[in-house]
TrEMBL record:
Record protein name field: Trigger factor
Lineage: Bacteria, Bacteria division TA06
SUPFAM superfamilies (UniProt xref): FKBP-like, Trigger factor ribosome-binding domain
Residues in Trigger factor ribosome-binding bacterial domain copies: 3-148
GO BP annotations, alphabetical order: 'de novo' cotranslational protein folding; protein transport; protein unfolding
InterPro entries to which the protein is assigned, alphabetical: PPIase_dom_sf (IPR046357), Trig_fac (IPR005215), Trigger_fac_C_sf (IPR037041), Trigger_fac_ribosome-bd_bac (IPR008881), Trigger_fac_ribosome-bd_sf (IPR036611)
Pfam families recorded: Trigger_N
GO molecular function: peptidyl-prolyl cis-trans isomerase activity; protein folding chaperone; ribosome binding
Organism in which the protein naturally occurs: candidate division TA06 bacterium
Length: 215
């Protein structure tokens, strides 16, 4: 019978230590030896008829590796069935700890894996919350409407003269004694006075296509 012990490493990590008694180990190990004997061909013996002791002596390491590879997963699955009865369920592929074993001994191995952490659910409903609604003034509504108008406004050509708050597009040519420099088309909102009051005044009343001299 497999003996197992579950060790808690952290809130979500566990280590399962299992011990398989040598009686069970020897029975399964000999089963692996017989498999090797069935297809082993040794000088002086017919296939499958060589003495067990000779098979064990010649193929000791291969038999040991085959036994562990085949039976350790089986022992682990059996131990997991007992864990499931205790509501312990690994959520990832377990990792096998290093171990040392030789035929004739109990097999002791450890597996590390992760589980869902135990979370205590605190109160999450029926809370009392003080709600203080914000007072909305007429000025706040007007400002928001104005912002929406500016955000979603469509730009259309205007046939009449430019006025404050109009968005105009213009191209600047700068003159000095030696050369003329040009800039790409620029957009500007009249009335902001970003370039001075005179600049705004010179462009006010201008129409599309007009040429304005300003300094």
């Amino acid at each position: 019978m497999i003996k197992s012990d579950l060790e808690k490493l952290s809130e979500c990590k566990r280590k399962l230590n299992i011990v398989i008694p040598k009686e069970t180990v020897n029975k399964d190990y000999q089963s692996t030896v017989r498999k090797y004997r069935s297809y082993a061909t040794l000088p002086g013996f017919r296939k499958g008829k060589a003495p067990i002791s000779m098979i064990e002596s010649i193929y000791k390491e291969q038999i040991k590796a085959s036994y562990l590879e085949e039976y350790i997963p089986k022992y682990y699955r059996q131990a997991l069935l007992e864990l499931e009865k205790k509501k312990v369920f690994p959520i990832n592929q377990s990792s096998l700890e290093d171990f040392d074993w030789n035929p004739g001994e109990d097999l002791e191995v450890g597996f590390k894996f992760e589980v869902k952490p135990d979370i205590e659910l605190k109160k999450y409903k029926d809370f009392e919350i003080n709600f203080k609604p914000e007072k909305v003034t007429k000025k706040m509504i007007e400002n928001e409407l104005k912002r929406l108008q500016q955000t979603y406004a469509k730009i259309i050509d205007k046939k009449s003269s430019a006025e404050p708050n109009d968005l105009i597009y213009y191209q600047v040519e700068k003159y000095d004694d030696k050369k003329v420099s040009k800039q790409e088309e620029i957009s500007y909102k009249l009335g902001t006075k970003n370039f001075g009051e005179k600049f705004d005044k010179d462009l006010t009343s201008a129409k599309s296509g007009d040429v304005i001299d300003t300094t």
